[in-house]
Amino acid sequence: MFKPFANDTDAMNIAGDAINIVNGTTRVTISGDLTIARDKAGLAAAKALHEALGAIVAALESAPDLPAKLADEPPAPTGTADNPFI
């Protein structure tokens, strides 16, 4: 089962690889293009998407320390480092 925000390694696909959901500890990325047909395959895809989104919402709602907004990516490093290739 997909556990949103649990780690930086899990991923799931819906309808083959039409929708890709990639886990992260601070962000979950959903990408792709899914057409839901009025058939059993469409129902299965819709249920899988619904389950994944429901898990994401539940994880967010259960977080006691949920900030109003995450800061953007970490600031660029300060200082310099020697180039190991020269």
Fold and architecture overview:
The chain has 86 residues and is an alpha+beta fold. It has a domain at 11-61. Helix content is 26%, strand content 14%. It has one helix and three strands; from the N terminus they run βββα. The protein has one helix at 40-61; strands at residues 11-14, 19-22, 29-32. Strands 1-2-3 form a three-stranded antiparallel β-sheet, with helices on one face. β1 (11-14) and β2 (19-22) form a beta hairpin. The protein starts with 10 loop residues before the first strand and ends in a 25-residue tail after the last helix. The mean pLDDT is 91.
Numbering strands along the chain, what is their spatial order in the largest sheet? 1-2-3
The percent of residues in helical segments reads 25-40%
Please outline the major beta sheet: 3 strands, antiparallel
Low-confidence stretches: none
Count of β-strands: 3
Element-by-element helix/strand order: EEEH
Class by SSE composition: alpha+beta
> Which radius of gyration do the C-alpha atoms yield?
18 Å
Average residue-wise pLDDT: 91
Describe the global form: extended
Roughly what fraction of the amino acids lie in strands?
A: 5-15%
Separation, N- and C-terminal Cα atoms:
47 Å
Figure out the total of helices. Answer: 1
Please summarize what this structure is.
The chain is α+β, with helices and mostly antiparallel strands and 86 residues long. Helices cover 26% and strands 14% of the residues.
How are the secondary structure elements laid out?
Blueprint: E1 11-14, E2 19-22, E3 29-32, H1 40-61
Antiparallel strand pairs: 1-2, 2-3
